[in-house]
Amino acid sequence: QDFRTSRTHRICLLQDAKDILMIQEQDVICVSGEPFYSGERTVTIRRQTVGGFGLSIKGGAEHNIPVVISKISKEQRAELSGLLFIGDAILQINGINVRKCRHEEVVQVLRNAGEEVTLTVSFLKRAPAFLKLPLNEDCACVPSDQSSGTSSPLCDSGLHLNYHPNNTDTLSCSSWPTSPGLRWEKRWCDLRLIPLLHSRFSQYLPGSDLCRQNAFQVIAVDGVCSGIIQSVSAEDCMDWLQAIATNISNLTKHNVSIDQSGSVDFQIVYMGWTEEREQDSLQDRMYTPKFLALRGSSLYKFIAPPVTTWDWTRAEKTFSVYEIMCKILKDSDLLDRRKHCFGVQSESGEDLYYSVELECDLTLWEKAFQTATFLEVERIQCKTYACVLESHLMGLTIDFGMGFVCFDAATKAVLWRYKFSQLKGSSDDGKSKIKFLFQNPDTKQIEAKELEFSNLFAVLHCIHSFFAAKVACLDPLYVGSQAATSAVATTSGTGKSKYTT
């Protein structure tokens, strides 16, 4: 994978463990001895009659990168030294600082370095992406007796330059490191460790609906960010996202099972990260990360995951789960270029709009809302709302067993009652009034009953929740299926809501 931060391009290794995402990069480390400065190494090598120094270089100041070792020949002096690696930046040659030299200038210094050269090098972590540039065979350098004196900085310059046919020198101790106790190795080292519990990931540019191409970033609960991880293909990117999402989900489930209280009032059905669309969004901030949790009778909205018991009292907002409406949005309902969205209408009629990263996340949220609603309706069994009928204070009870019961608030006398199966439709004015259409079981005639409520949306959503739970009770396979959306149909945007069985 390509790991990119700002203008830095790095080739990195990702390892998705069960509870942590490890981002690693290659580095050269000292594995024995005590180097004076572990970031730099000094090695002295001699030219050989055949092969010269036994290494090739790329880069230069014209590319905003030091000259870098791009090849090391087998069984040649550079390899035998044990201190040089592909990706090493050449910092000094015989004490001459070449950090900011152009490619051809470094070539000339090495040509004139003599039979023995002392190199000061340091492994350049961002070099691999540069070294992956394709080589142009036509401009590969040749020995000095054939060279035109020019070379391409995008190509390897073979440093078997200026060799002397009469030089029959063999390997001597001067070609070995001056400190034989030091041993260096190129290894994969941890760059960042991202704890996956309650972490979030995103393919989108922060706050926008613009999706990165084959790239994402992971942010831990403490704010530590992986940086932008660029995948080679869309398939690779999706594989990583699915794997990370699975591990985050498994960690969340495990954490929930440990913290679960014995009381159904406090049991967590589901929780996780979403991004909420701002209702008065600014151009540069359309979405804000929000952590949602379905727990007991409520939907909680947090700016950060709840870790302690006290955190649950600090929610940004809470909603009664049976008095809200969740709707999975189809493509025609989407407000922008973000996919996998769902809407939540609160008991006050406020419309909240959420985005998740993957289709599987959307399915989990849909099932979670259905399950939470069923469990809560099954627990409370009935809910009564104050209403007005012809200027008289009344009460409407929605009862899981009996259906709808309307009674006089003062005398408790029942005016009418109908079963859920007798409700054939309803409409509302979008403000306070609901008209119910019930079928008389004896005459089969439709009887209209109109009531006025101060909390219209809460009543409508509660009726929807009881209907959905009723269907679920009759069909155990209902919970987690698509049947919820067909049990009660709602028409939005017209100020009218219609409920049918």
TrEMBL record:
GO molecular function: actin binding; structural molecule activity
InterPro entries: PDZ, PDZ_sf, PH_domain, Syntrophin, Syntrophin_4th
PH domain boundaries: 267-374
Subcellular localization, as worded in the UniProt entry: Cytoplasm, Cytoskeleton; Nucleus
SMART domains: PDZ
One of the record's GO cellular component terms: syntrophin complex
PROSITE patterns from the UniProt entry: PDZ, PH_DOMAIN
Alphabetically ordered keywords of this record: Actin-binding, Cytoplasm, Cytoskeleton, Nucleus
Ranges where the PDZ domain occurs: 42-125
Family (UniProt): Belongs to the syntrophin family.
Job of this protein: Adapter protein that binds to and probably organizes the subcellular localization of a variety of proteins. May link various receptors to the actin cytoskeleton and the dystrophin glycoprotein complex. May participate in regulating the subcellular location of diacylglycerol kinase-zeta to ensure that diacylglycerol is rapidly inactivated following receptor activation.
Record-given protein name: Gamma-1-syntrophin
Taxon lineage: Eukaryota, Metazoa, Chordata, Craniata, Vertebrata
